[in-house]
Amino acid sequence: MVNLSKQHPSAYKSLIALNGEADEAVKQAGLDPLLGELVKIRVSQLNGCAFCLRMHTRDAIAKGETSDRLAVVAAWWESQYFTDQEQAALGLAEEVTRLSVPAREDWDNGSLNDEQISAVSWLTVVMNAWNRVAIRSHYPVGP
Questions:
Q1: How confident is the model at residue 16 (pLDDT cuts 50, 70, 90)?
Q2: Rounded distance, CA 64 to CA 127, Å?
Q3: pLDDT tens readout for residues 32-79
Q4: What is the DSSP code string of 45-80?
Q5: Going from the N-terminus, what domains does the chain have, and what CATH number goes with each?
Q6: How far apart are the C-alpha atoms of 39 and 42, rounded to whole Å?
Q7: Quick one: which H or E segment has residue 7?
Q8: Residue 57's closest CA among 71, 77, 47, 46?
Q9: Distance linking the first and last C-alpha atoms of the chain
Q10: What are the coiled-coil residue ranges (predicted)?
């Protein structure tokens, strides 16, 4: 097993810097940091990354997220727990991750402006990269 962060630490540090830029873009776009955690959780669910799921679920709880909302984030479109903006961000994150569905008309309800769409897109790109680093490196996830 190859730990990517140890094999090429400068690439890993660049990803850390890009992560910071994406988080800052979310903040500058006026999006709630909790929405950012929901996006990170959903992207990690789609990618099957246990390491990132555990980390960002804990981060979301620390920021005040509820267990009910966390329980249904995998089926966000079937619940009434999420605001229009959260639904739009989660749909956009799925589109960027899957590169096919849902189509823009399925998530673009007008609640995200262009800056926010860009911020959520960058956050999703970075989260996809982190998921792949963690999965490929076989980061341990135990109790």
A1: very high
A2: 21
A3: 999 999 999 999 999 999 999 999 999 999 999 999 999 999 999 999
A4: HHHT-HHHHHHHHHHHHHTT--HHHHHHGGGGGG-S
A5: 16-137 (1.20.1290.10)
A6: 5
A7: helix 4-7
A8: 71
A9: 21
A10: none
Q: Under 8 Å CB-to-CB from 80, ≥6 apart: which residues?
A: none
Q: Is the dihedral of CA 100, 88, 71, 45 positive or negative?
A: positive
The predicted-structure confidence for 78-131, as pLDDT tens digits, reads as follows 999 999 999 999 999 998 888 765 566 777 788 898 899 888 888 898 999 999
Exposed, middle or buried: residue 34 (CB in 10 Å: 0-12, 13-18, 19+)? middle
Strand locations in the chain, DSSP E? none
**Distance from C-alpha of 1 to C-alpha of 132, rounded to nearest angstrom:** 14
Q: What is the pLDDT of residue 88?
A: 94
